[in-house]
Amino acid sequence: MVLAGWGSTAAMITSAVSLGVAGDLRSPFILDEVLRLYPPSFMIGRTATGKSSEFPFKSGETLLISPWLIHRSSRAWASPLDFRPGRWADRVPGAAPGSLPFGLGPRRCPASRFARTQATVTGDLLSNLPRPQATEVTLLENRSPALSQRRDKPDSVPERDLSSIS
């Protein structure tokens, strides 16, 4: 379980380091806001198992749910693109409407509690890490979205050779 969940947990911790809040991950407000903006999986696939009068899906159809997009919806969040940990003050940590970083229901990630614990322990280890004065961040390309401090200028990003990908 440690290795299976490490990629997504590492992405969450990398994002927290880049935002300058890694040492504050013990706070559920900080942790939930990092998870809201940078969920461990940007897309969750499910198969509809039955009919519902509420939804227009047929049994057997594949459904794609994007926590990344839902967490950025202005219908669920005020100023959804801003990092605002205070928005969690009146919500139950880890269980707010419009928040599904680990999925929901019976197929929710079984390691979600472990990932949250791993993040808080790592946050304790990184508590003496100096906070960046100011930083520009960019998304890393990965299964799990993560932030990294930008080390190049936008106009100097090298092109990729895709010819070797089959």
Tags for this entry?
two-stranded antiparallel sheet; Cytochrome p450; 28% helix; 4 helices; 4 strands; 166 residues; elongated; alpha+beta
Folded structure, characterized:
The protein contains 4 helices and 4 strands, in the order H-H-E-E-H-H-E-E. The protein has a single domain, classed as Cytochrome p450 (Orthogonal Bundle), CATH 1.10.630.10. By secondary structure, the protein is of the alpha+beta class. Helices cover 28% and strands 10% of the residues. The protein is elongated and about 55 Å long. The strands form 2 sheets. The chain has a two-stranded antiparallel sheet. The chain has a two-stranded antiparallel ribbon with strand order 3-4. 25% of the residues are buried.
Short description:
The chain has 166 residues and is of the alpha+beta class. The protein contains four helices and four strands, in the order ααββααββ. A hairpin with a 5-residue loop joins β3 and β4.
Count of individual domains: 1
Number of helices: 4
CATH class: Mainly Alpha
Q: Specify the biggest β-sheet.
A: 2 strands, antiparallel
For the record, give the distance between the C-alpha atoms at the N and C termini, rounded to a whole number. 31 Å
How many E strands?
Answer: 4
Radius of gyration, whole Å: 18 Å
Strand order within the widest beta sheet: 1-2
So what's the overall shape?
elongated
What structural class is derived from the secondary structure elements?
A: alpha+beta
What is the H/E string? HHEEHHEE
Beta-strand content: 5-15%
**Poorly predicted segments:** 155-163
Q: What is the mean predicted local confidence, pLDDT?
A: 79
Fraction of residues in helix: 25-40%
Please name the CATH topology.
Cytochrome p450
